[in-house]
Amino acid sequence: MGRYSLMMGSEALVRGAIYAGVRFYSGYPITPATEIAEYMSQLLPRVGGIFVQAEDELAAINMAIGASVAGWKAMVATSGPGFSLMQEGIGYAVNTEVPLVIVDVQRGGPSTGQPTLPSQQDVMQARYGSHGSYEIIVLSPGNVQEMFYLTIDAVNLSEQYRTLVILLTEEVTAHLWEKIYIPDPANIQYSLT
Predict the structure, then answer these.
(1) How far is CA 152 from CA 41, 105, 125, 147, in A?
(2) Crossing angle, helix 57-69 and helix 87-95, to 10 degrees?
(3) What span, in angstroms and rounded, lies between the C-alpha atoms of 75 and 78?
């Protein structure tokens, strides 16, 4: 709680997820989303949560779906190539009404691509990447403070509408350092719920 002189966007996102009640995280390290996994591995155990480093992105999304079905608020984070691999799981989660938050820290290029190049190449994939006809909620923070609040909104919207919510960020915002204020949990104002 309180005002932080500087905080990285990825850490603000993790703190927002924990404030919103996320207690299960699975992921596979992929640049530029790796810091999310690192912060989750440090902070989740402090609040009784579970952190799992999966063997790949397919396992990560399926573990998160299973945790959500079991009653945990769950989240997974990845980047472009991993997001592509998660598309079948995304379709399954949407069609079975599993509340889940997926963070996609976008980067340039397919596959090995350019992992440190800022880019917004997953916008259409976020909306239309998986099978079937479905509506999906996608939120896109533009600064560190929004990383905190929109993550809370993403978790709450996923629970409220029983759907997968994608938090579509990118390399610059995830690695941005800014001043941020984290309020007392009782005083958080939710912008969308």
Answers:
(1) 19, 17, 23, 9
(2) 20
(3) 10
Distance (Å, rounded) from C-alpha 79 to C-alpha 139? 15
H helix count then E strand count, the chain: 8, 8
Three-class SS state of 176: coil
pLDDT of residue 146: 97
Convert the pLDDT of each residue in 77-116 to its tens digit.
999 889 999 999 999 999 999 999 999 999 876 666 566 6
Supply φ then ψ for residue 21, to 5 degrees: 105, 10
Q: Amino acid identity of 131?
A: H
pTM above 0.85, yes or no: yes
- CA angle 97–100–106, rounded 5-degree value: 125
Q: Token pair 């440190």 is at which residue?
A: 116
> Sign (positive/negative) of CA torsion 155, 159, 160, 163?
positive
Residue 130 near residue 83, CB atoms below 8 Å: no
